[in-house]
Specification:
The chain is mainly alpha-helical. 69% of the residues lie in helices and 0% in strands. Helix 3 runs antiparallel to helix 4 (82-97) and helix 3 (66-76) packs parallel to helix 5 (105-127).
Length: 182
């Protein structure tokens, strides 16, 4: 232990430049000089505060913030009202904060995000359809609705009129007209 300590002190003195052995290799001296300059620069540099993320902002065990989910909901469920989107967020938020769901929290977030993005992609595809394609789909919808039982037709009518289906508003109006024409 004493030998180790002596070598440590000797190295420290060499490193600090207090002792300059005459027989030292020029490359070692260059490396020691560079090391000394780096050490001095670091010593003179003001210490930057270490910024740690505030973990209370994230769902426990994840790196997802509630604000990210709010944005995802607002971006993917544009056909819903503000209150409906807030209700979705509140329900999802409560489920994610429930300690009983700790083991599946990440999976829940991934599943929700996947479904939300799928809905958004479908909305964009429907929005990009030509008016003739939308009318053709509405006509096919009318024919399919006619084959449903009366209870299912009534439920579907409520969904259409409430704007709860993930379709663009102009296409929703076409579907309502097709539903009423059955």
């Amino acid at each position: 232990m004493g030998r180790f300590l002596r070598k440590g002190v000797l190295f420290t003195l060499l490193f600090a430049g207090l002792v300059a052995p005459a027989s030292a290799d020029p490359i070692i001296m260059l490396l020691l000089s560079v090391a000394r300059q780096i050490a001095e620069a670091q010593a003179n540099k003001p210490a930057a505060p270490v910024v740690l993320p505030e973990m209370s902002r994230y769902y426990p065990g994840t790196t997802v913030e509630p604000e990210h989910l709010k944005s995802l909901i607002d971006d993917c469920f544009i056909y819903l009202s503000f209150d409906q989107r807030r209700e979705i967020f509140n329900s999802l938020n409560a489920a994610l904060l429930d300690p009983r769901n700790a083991a599946v929290r990440g999976t829940m977030i991934e599943y929700f995000a996947s479904k939300a993005l799928t809905i958004r992609a479908a909305q964009q595809q429907l929005a990009n359809l030509s008016w003739q394609d939308k009318e053709r789909l509405a006509n096919e919808f009318r024919q399919e609705v006619a084959t449903l039982p009366a209870e299912d037709q009534a439920e579907l009518g409520k969904l259409l009129r409430s704007g709860m289906l993930p379709v663009p508003s102009d296409f929703n109006q076409l579907l309502i007209a097709a539903f009423d024409a059955r």
